[in-house]
């Protein structure tokens, strides 16, 4: 069929006589983060699932179940890939929000700057991030030990007054009962952190079996450009790495419990009233615990990802045996701790609580500095176009943010539990019946109001920016619609300008992360320095001015309450998400953004949905083209565009030659290219455009998520088309008598440019470009 014949077919005319029959054609739709239904995507109430399961599936209109060629009149067969249930289909998944630090530190692994050079620097960066992730597991379990072993079993159960207030602790109070001995109640309280470790192991194993089990299609290795890391066959199949990391982190959590128990019994056993045999056994168990910690730290240097081929190898026997060995050590430690010590009594805080948390903060700080140095070296050796956000320090800032968030969570929960156990006075203050949590945790709880104040200040700065930008843009909005015969409407112009200004705030995200990370660093150092005094923030400020003393006291009290309220709100959100589909979709948006990447640093992070979605899309495109020899346009909106691009990268060159990519509202360059330059930087996107030249990207200035991809090629039209007019019309007219809405990030398919560009992509796939009516150009994006 000639180009003119294709154009006539697109207009509904009959094809040329004697022309070869047209090939089958499919448009595969991939929705974005907000989620939708197959019926909405296909604009038909009668749809049928043609492949997939209840988690993710491909649907067609029931009337389109039979393959048919694209004749230019009825259009291509449309299919919808529905993946909502990968992220927000089950309300219980919203409880992963409680493990935000794990999710955030996992992102740091993928923020490595795009640079060549010695592989050892890349391995050093990855290893340091894995060590930071391991320290977060240690922090979580240590926080559980601080609550269960220190506050409950050591302090409150060891005080008659506190046990009297908490009646459920009566059997464990000092006296003649079997459970009255400190060692036995400590051994029983150890069940709480052990249960937490078991829950995390079970969740990780369960999601590992469901998500990381989608094998890539058995196709020849893609011959994409050298910079297309996402084209590696094993990129979306990390079963082996997650299994190895899960074994190491589970063993680390168990060793923390053993260390907490041994540090409680050690001072007594080595004292004048202790037993020499128990002291020797304690030293032996301590040596085994320290040896296990050294082994786990060394294991992190060997847990790198294998992306050249799918990581299907079995977990090494030594690594697989680590959790069992650590559990056996915990069992021996529990027996050692529960051994009768009739003269033992507990006072003050747990012996290890004072030193462990400051040391953890210092270690995390040192590791984060190491991540920053490695990242900056890579940043300096990267091409200027591929340099990421924050001078290449995005990964270090995110890792620091994860550590700060983990410390705030731990300190807030510990402070809230201490206030609940001893409501008579602030723990550690005069009149209090328990000493309270470790001092550094009280300082971290006091940091919560300060962090909220920083966030409030950033929000005010953002509001000022929006107001100024709106005033600057509003007088020029009418000029964007020069072909309309309509007088300027001040309110209409102000609303459009406000939408553009609000959308531009996304470009300020690096500064936001930098400010918050810097605040976490300053507050962490302050907490460590304050803990060296041995006093809580309120007591440390008592000798200063009255205003400072009142402020410190208010921050400490408010921080504990805010943390308690925050945990309750997160749990309430999870409960509501189980019952309310709309809430489930809203919470799923947060999960979509944070869990696109595989679990490469922390095995207890929320699972990666892309390890199921990307193979699904690759399998569907590859098998359909192999079976029919037809042409396919994959159309991705928002996060769906990222999945679509990743799936196209996984295909071989012959298959890609029959595929066109249509992205709209895409964060490929604006978010992913900025924060993950090694995978979505300019060189990677240029490589994708070189491998599949049929690519078109639509964007709007009012879209806070999508934007241009900034890729140009020597031949063919540019990839980007935009900014598209939004709203489509400025005022009322004969064809549009009612005001047009400002669409922002949604409903790109309602723009006439969408249908025109889709038709153009199909024409370019078949015979070559066709002249289509040009769309009215909009001015360049203003910030």
Automatic annotation (TrEMBL):
<feature type="compositionally biased region" description="Low complexity">
    <location>
        <begin position="7"/>
        <end position="16"/>
    </location>
</feature>
<feature type="transmembrane region" description="Helical">
    <location>
        <begin position="390"/>
        <end position="414"/>
    </location>
</feature>
<feature type="transmembrane region" description="Helical">
    <location>
        <begin position="131"/>
        <end position="149"/>
    </location>
</feature>
<feature type="transmembrane region" description="Helical">
    <location>
        <begin position="186"/>
        <end position="203"/>
    </location>
</feature>
<feature type="transmembrane region" description="Helical">
    <location>
        <begin position="318"/>
        <end position="339"/>
    </location>
</feature>
<dbReference type="InterPro" id="IPR029058">
    <property type="entry name" value="AB_hydrolase_fold"/>
</dbReference>
<feature type="transmembrane region" description="Helical">
    <location>
        <begin position="276"/>
        <end position="297"/>
    </location>
</feature>
<feature type="region of interest" description="Disordered">
    <location>
        <begin position="1"/>
        <end position="24"/>
    </location>
</feature>
<feature type="transmembrane region" description="Helical">
    <location>
        <begin position="247"/>
        <end position="264"/>
    </location>
</feature>
<feature type="transmembrane region" description="Helical">
    <location>
        <begin position="512"/>
        <end position="532"/>
    </location>
</feature>
<keyword id="KW-1133">Transmembrane helix</keyword>
<feature type="transmembrane region" description="Helical">
    <location>
        <begin position="94"/>
        <end position="111"/>
    </location>
</feature>
<feature type="transmembrane region" description="Helical">
    <location>
        <begin position="447"/>
        <end position="467"/>
    </location>
</feature>
<protein>
    <recommendedName>
        <fullName>Integral membrane protein</fullName>
    </recommendedName>
</protein>
<keyword id="KW-0472">Membrane</keyword>
<feature type="transmembrane region" description="Helical">
    <location>
        <begin position="558"/>
        <end position="578"/>
    </location>
</feature>
<keyword id="KW-0812">Transmembrane</keyword>
<feature type="transmembrane region" description="Helical">
    <location>
        <begin position="359"/>
        <end position="378"/>
    </location>
</feature>
